[in-house]
Amino acid sequence: MKHLAFIPIGFIRTEVAEVPRHWSISDVEGEILLQPEYQPGLTGLQAGDRIVIIFYFHKSPPFSPENLIQKPPHRDQPAGVFSLCSPLRPNPIGLSVVEIIAIEKNIVKIKGLDMLNGAPVLDIKPYISYQAR
Amino acid sequence: MKHLAFIPIGFIRTEVAEVPRHWSISDVEGEILLQPEYQPGLTGLQAGDRIVIIFYFHKSPPFSPENLIQKPPHRDQPAGVFSLCSPLRPNPIGLSVVEIIAIEKNIVKIKGLDMLNGAPVLDIKPYISYQAR
């Protein structure tokens, strides 16, 4: 099957070595170090905004079929990978919702992250709640 | 820069030719036709659940630097691509939140989609509101 190729638009930087298991329980601060050429794409974003970061789980081991069912540490029962936020997925793509603290040129300071230091960033989108429907 | 390669885990199917500009204003129905080998990964998902679909904007033209600032049809002012949900992005990755209507083997019937027919699906995740924090 044809592969789809993406490039990192930046990288996550955080000094925290052990991040929370999920952004919804995180107060960890860090930053997106955006490649300088993409800086104009930040126009319109500001401190206090919530953004979605799509990133690459660069530390995940290769996925194999037995990982389609997993039992996360915080759950009693095993469940399908598509019902879980596990970093071990067919495509190791992560999604976190974080809050912008400040933007300084191509650096976006953020709060509430759950990515490991060095994670490649694939996209930044505005956060839109399902309740907006 | 090193490319990151992903594979489609399935494809979007819908009979609607003109989809709404965003899932938050969509009632369009369709389905995810998951590759059969990933079917066990759906375990634990059921009708009524909200899921996040990460997909590939397969109809987007190539991105160029002048697209870093865009003026969407429904906005007065141009803005940075990372503050917009435009399908024209450095990495053409889409994110939609939809509701599951039914799951039949490897077919996930969904409501509220805004993808074009044939869009490759990269990941399915549970929807978690920022308000869960």
Would you write up a description of this structure?
Two copies of one chain form a homodimer. Chain A has 133 residues and is mostly beta strands. Chain A has no helices and nine strands. The first copy, chain A, has a domain at 24-60 and 72-127: Elongation Factor Tu (Ef-tu), domain 3 (Beta Barrel). A six-stranded antiparallel β-barrel of chain A has the order 2-3-8-7-4-9. A two-stranded antiparallel ribbon of chain A has the order 5-6. The mean pLDDT of chain A is 92. The interface between A and B is large, with 57 and 57 residues. Strand 1 of chain A pairs antiparallel with strand 1 of chain B.
Q: Which features characterize this protein?
A:
homodimer; 133 residues; mainly beta; Elongation Factor Tu (Ef-tu), domain 3; six-stranded antiparallel barrel; two-stranded antiparallel sheet; 0% helix
Oligomer: homodimer
For the largest sheet of chain A, list the strands in their spatial order. Answer: 2-3-8-7-4-9
In DSSP terms (H or I, runs of 4 or more residues), the helix count of chain A works out at 0
Show the largest interface.
Answer: A-B, 57 and 57 residues
Coarse shape of chain A: globular
Give the uncertain stretches of chain A in residue-range form: none
Radius of gyration of chain A using CA atoms only: 16 Å
Q: Find the CATH topology of one domain in chain A.
A: Elongation Factor Tu (Ef-tu), domain 3
Termini of chain A, distance in Å? 35 Å
CATH-level-2 architecture of one domain in chain A:
Beta Barrel
Largest sheet of chain A: 6 strands, antiparallel, barrel
Range of strand content of chain A: 35-45%
The CATH superfamily of one domain in chain A turns out to be YaeB-like
The level-1 CATH class of one domain in chain A: Mainly Beta
Structure summary, number of beta strands of chain A: 9
Helix content class of chain A: under 10%
Q: What's the order of the H and E elements of chain A? A: EEEEEEEEE
Q: What is the average per-residue confidence, as pLDDT of chain A, rounded to a whole number?
A: 92
Structural class of chain A: mainly beta
